[in-house]
Fold this sequence. Notes:
Elements: H1 3-15, H2 20-33, H3 37-48, E1 63-68, H4 76-86, E2 90-95, H5 105-110, H6 121-131, E3 133-137, H7 144-155, H8 162-174, E4 180-187, H9 196-212, E5 216-223, E6 231-233, H10 235-245, H11 251-268, H12 274-286, H13 289-300, H14 306-309, E7 319-324, E8 329-334, H15 336-348, E9 362-365, E10 372-373, E11 378-384, H16 390-400, E12 401-404, E13 414-418
Parallel strand pairs: 1-2, 1-4, 2-3, 4-5
Antiparallel strand pairs: 5-13, 6-9, 7-11, 8-10, 8-12, 9-11
Helix pairs in contact: 1-3, 3-8, 3-9, 4-10, 4-11, 4-13, 8-9, 11-12, 15-16
Amino acid sequence: MTDAEIHYLVEGFTRGDIPDYQLAAWAMAVYLKGMNEHEATALTLAMARSGQTVEFPGIQGTIVDKHSTGGVGDKVSLVLTPLVAAAGLTVAKLSGRGLGHTGGTIDKLESIPGFQAALSIEEMIDQVNQMGIALSESTHDLAPADKALYGLRDVTATVGSLPLIASSIMSKKLAVHTHAIVLDVKVGSGALMKNLDQAGALAKLMVQIGNGAGRKTSALLTNMDQPLGFAVGNSVEVKEAIETLKGNGPEDLTELCLGLSAQLICLTQSDIGADAAKAKLRSHLEDGSALEKFKEWIATQHGDASYVDDFGKFPATAETVMVTSPSSGYVQSLDALSIGQAAHSLGAGREKKSESIDYAVGVVLHAKISDQVNQGDPLATLYVNKTDSLESAKQKIENAFQFSNDPVDKPTLIHETITP
Ligand code: URA
C-alpha cells in the first residue's frame, strides 16, 4: 500500500467514514499477508497523528523514553528514570497502570503515599527543567486510531499480527515527542511474545519504525521466562528498585537497568560505547547520585521521600505466608506468568481499569532458575491481606517451580541488542 492509501484508511476509520467491517477485513489481510517495513512505518505515523500529540516546548536537554512490552516483576522504569537523569539525560514520560498479570509503573509509584501521578504538560515541562524528570499518568487521548483498531483486532483474531503489534506500540510512543527511545522486548512465558524468533522480528520492526520516523531507537530482546528480580507486587517492587538504586539490587534487574540505560546514552551521545556507558551509569549507582535523584523526583511529585530511607513506613500486610519447596534439586523453570497470576490473585493487580489494588500485597521469591534448594527450603514469601485467595496463590507458586536433579545454567537475560 502507498502512504496515501494507508493515511486514507486510518483517517477515514478515525472519522467514522470507513466502517468496522471494511477495516476488519483489511486487518485480516494484514494478518495473513504481513506488511513491509515501509507500510508499517506509514501505518504507525498515521495512527500516531490520529489524535493529540504531546510536545514539550521549551524543555532543555535530550528527552528520552523507554518502553517495555510488559513482564512480571518489571520495575525497570523506577530505576532507569533516575539513573539516566543522574547521567544528564532528561526523562519526560507518560506511563500506564497495570492490567491483568503485569503491573504498571504508576501503580507502583503510588504505593509511596502522596505521589501525584497526573501532571499537565506545563507541569511536566516545569518539572523537567527544574530537576530532569517528569513521569505522568497518561490521561491524553494518544493515538485514538490505535485504540479503535485494537478493539477490532481483539474481536477478529488479528491481535497476533507482528506489524499490527509493532505499529500499535510505536504509535503511542511516537505521539509523544522525545528524542530517543529504548525498547525492552520481552520473550518467554510471562511475555506477549513466547518465542525468540517472533520477539526478535517484533523488536527489529519496532526499531526500524522508530528510526524511520526520525527517532533514535534501539531495542533489547530480554528473557521473561522467570520474573525479573525477586519481588512481584507494588510496594515490594518499589523497595527492590530502591535497593537496586543503592547498588544492592538483584543481579538480573541491575544488569537489565544498566543495559537499557546504556542504550539511551549511546543513542544520544555518539562518542561513547555501551561498555563505557555502563561503567558511567554504574558509578551513579555506587556514588548515591541515582538514589538522590530518585528521592528528589518522588518529593517533587509530592511523594513522601522518607519512605525511601525507612522501608518500615510501608504498610505491612495482615499475614506473611511462606511457600516451601516440595522437593530437593535445582530450579529448572520458574513460570513468570504463574507468579504474576499469584500476585494478581492476592490483590496486587486489577482485571478492569476501574478496580482498585492493594499496594502492600505481593510475592517475594527466594529462589530462581539454577538455584539449588532442599525440600522444605523457602521458595517464596506471600504478603497477604485477604485469605480467600491464599490457597490458589500458594498453588500457583508451587506449580510455577519445576526441579531437576542435575545442575541448571542461569538463563541468558539479554538475548540481543538491536541498534539503528
Ligand atoms: N500492546 C499494544 O499496545 N498493542 C498491541 O497490539 C499489543 C501490545
